[in-house]
Amino acid sequence: MTVGKTVRQAAAAAFVLSTPYWLPKALVGLRVRVFAAVNGPEGVIVPNETVGPEQFAELYAHPAADGRSKGAGLSDLFWYWLSPGPEVHQEHLEPGPRYDAVARTTVSILAGSSAQLSKAAADCAARVLDELVPGDVELVRLRDLMMPVWAEFFHGLVFHEPCPPGVRELITGNAEDVVNSLKNTRLRHMGRRARLTRYLLRRLAAGDLPHELPAELSGPRDRAHYLQGAFFNTAVVQMSEAMAHLLLVLAQHPDVQRRLAAHPEDDHDLGNVINETLRMYPLFGIAHRITSADIDLGGDVRYPAGTVLCFDYPAYHATGYEDPDVFDPGRWDRISAKDAHHIPFGVAANRPCPAWRLSPVVMRAATREVLARFTLHSSVSHTRPIPHRAPCLLVRRGHRLPAHRRAAVLAFLRVRDRWEDLGRSLLQLGLGTWMVADARRLRMAETYFAHHDTQGNPLPGQQAAGAAGPATIPRTAGPSGCPYPH
Q1: From which residue to which does any coiled coil extend (predicted)?
Q2: What pTM was estimated for this model as a whole?
Q3: Which residues pair with 308 in a beta bridge?
Q4: Domain residues for 405?
Q5: CATH number reported for the structural domain that contains residue 85 in this entry
Q6: Are 371 and 112 in contact (CB under 8 A)?
């Protein structure tokens, strides 16, 4: 009996200790199935058996793959996460004059010479790093460290003035709330987001904006929501995540890190590292488009109008390369980015990221500031969603950290990461299921288009949006459910 009891206890202990190695993946799979059940079958994922990687870009660039929000249940979920003001968020505007005007304005605000943009990014990074990492040895979360950098940077682009500390806190609080809800690690806190909206409304009312905003944004609140969504949600979040991926890659590839630190002026080498990082860890998981007309690419590739196409960036980026799972910056000396399956900023013919030119420039500048100050070390997992926010050990250059201490910290990070992943997966399952169900209940996109046309004009005889219950809009269903973009 004693031996049997000991065996059972050992088996139970082994089961518990092994859960961080297998349960998180099982919970992610369960989460995808739960969300698919709540959302219903919607979307055709590409690439797939019919649309291979060679036709992926052709389909993505097709003129009829241009719908963005209207007619897709998936839009209700994204509108929920990106509130307030998803109806004027550039990425969710329907094609037409309003989108064109907003896109031109965004490009204008982001404009600047490479030298100007690089200096602004370097100054912001230097200021934030010196403030937030005063010691010789610090444990940080790289996404958290980078977010104030981009809050200051984009505030400077929008207002042409330095970002006050209190405003930086508003921006980072807003951006963290958006990305944490997207990752399903926290619920939305609309009051936190509303504080930034009120700040932007005050600045607009005072005439402090040095840019002319589109007349197609009809009122102050639309204009505030446009600035909040484009620059202080998406831009801050995406640049923070891009830098977290890049710096975590360097922390886990010390030979690459040493080479870049020794030759900070080598933009070509750093550019290769950025290309490879964004290939392996694209910022977009799934981008969806709704077809506005029938698409026939020949053969068996035919999609009727109203089809929801889900473009799978990680799957596409994994095709057409030797050893696609190996981090190899040198591959970009052997292949051309424009000829490779590489679209980190989308495709030029279908709403490319407006910061496609700016991003590599400012990423290089910020990276040089980090490498000038610190060596980076990390032993945590690295996945595209990066929900752990990239834990990393920073050691100030010139400071000698004993090897045994560094090894102990890395062992701690590795073990903590496993157990955090377990707890976080359970949290994501619960919070994510609740938010998906709540988004389906609110049906924000569906309700909006029941009362407005695609250019934001009220429909004749319709009540104002939100004054009536949600209308029932027919949905398109594809042969496979669109995966949740975690």
Answers
A1: none
A2: 0.91
A3: 290
A4: 42-451
A5: 1.10.630.10
A6: no
